[in-house]
C-alpha cells in the first residue's frame, strides 16, 4: 500500500477568528500526545493545517494517516483515546469533528 493510499481521518475545528485555539500548545503538546497514544495502533503520520483565520469556518485541520482500516478502529477505540480527548480543553473550547476519508 502506498502512502497516498493510507486511510486518513481528518479532525477539524470550526469557529470564528476570535475563538480560543492555542496553536502553539496544539502543535507542541497535543499532536505529540496523539502520535504517542496511537502510533502503536497504526497511526503513521499526523499533520496540522491552519486555513485563513479571517472568516468564520474551519480554523484547523488535522490529518491523521493510518496503516490500514483496522488501525483506525483500534486507535479510536483504545484506552488512550480518553487521554487524547481530555487534553482538548487545554487548547480550545471548540468541539472537534472527525471526518473519515474513503478511497474511491
TrEMBL record:
Domain EthD: 23-94
Coiled-coil residue spans: none
UniProt-listed InterPro entries: Dimeric_a/b-barrel, EthD_dom
Organism this protein belongs to: Paraburkholderia bryophila
Signal peptide start-end: none
Protein name (database record): Uncharacterized protein (TIGR02118 family)
Origin: domain of life: Bacteria
Single GO MF descriptor: oxidoreductase activity
Amino acid at each position: 500500500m502506498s502512502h497516498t493510499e493510507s486511510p486518513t481521518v481528518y479532525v477539524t475545528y470550526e469557529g470564528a477568528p476570535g475563538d480560543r485555539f492555542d496553536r502553539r500548545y496544539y502543535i507542541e503538546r497535543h499532536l505529540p500526545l496523539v502520535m504517542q497514544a496511537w502510533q502503536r495502533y497504526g497511526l503513521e503520520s499526523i499533520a496540522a493545517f491552519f486555513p485563513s483565520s479571517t472568516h468564520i469556518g474551519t480554523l484547523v485541520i488535522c490529518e491523521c494517516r493510518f496503516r490500514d482500516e483496522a488501525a483506525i478502529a483500534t486507535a479510536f477505540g483504545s484506552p488512550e483515546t480518553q487521554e487524547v480527548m481530555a487534553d482538548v480543553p487545554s487548547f480550545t473550547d471548540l468541539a472537534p469533528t472527525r471526518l473519515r476519508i474513503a478511497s474511491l
